[in-house]
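Hi, here's the filled form for the chain we discussed.

Project: internal
Contact: R.S.
Residues: 215
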Amino acid sequence: MEIHNPSELPPVNEIEKILEPYVKATILTPSEYLGNVITLVNDKRGIQEKMDYITPERVLLEYAIPMNEIVMDFYDKLKSTTKGYASFDYEPTGYREGDLVKLDIRVAGEVVDALSIIVPKSKAVTKGREFVKQMKELVPRQLFEVAIQASIGNKIISRETVKSMGKNVTAKCYGGDITRKRKLLEKQKAGKKRMKSIGKVQLPQEAFLTVLKID
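And the returned structure, exactly as it came back:
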C-alpha cells in the first residue's frame, strides 16, 4: 500500500514493515560548527555517508536522511545552529525500512484524524507527551472536563485534562439551606456527566497547526 495520509495506515497487526522516503543531503559548513551540525543531523535520524575537509575551515558532509525529518524546519535549524553560514541541498534516493508507528490524538475519547502523525517508535512517547501538553493550552474550556490523550493503537501513552469551567449554582441560595445547596450541586454534577457523554468539542485552528510544530 502507498500511504498519503496517516489515517490510511492499516492496524499494527496487519503491517509487516513500513518503508519511508529518504534523501541524500549535502551540507557544507564551517568547521567550527561541525559538532552542532552532526548533533542536529543525528537527531533527525541521519546516517553519515561522507565527510571531507574541503579546506581546514570548510567541511562537506553527505547524509542519508528520512524525508520526513527535513520537510518542516530542518533548514531553519541548520541556519540557526551555524549562524547562517551552512549551505544545504538534497535529492530523493528511494525508500528504506523504518521503525515507525502512527501517533493518534484523542479529544474527549474520539480520535481526531487530522492530528494523527507517523513518527519513529523511539520518539513516540516524547512526541505524544509534548503534543498533548500543547493541546491542553489550546483547547477551550467546556462545561465538562475534556481528556486529551496520545495513543498508539489502543494503548494510551500520555494524557492531559482540560478542567471544566466553574459555575456557582448555589449563588442564589441565601442563608444556610444546606439541603437545597446539596441538591443543586448533585444536579450540576449529573448534568456535567450527561454533557460529557454527548458533548462535542470544537477545536481551534491553532490545534491543527500544532502538528507542524512538534519536533
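Let me know if anything looks off before we file it.
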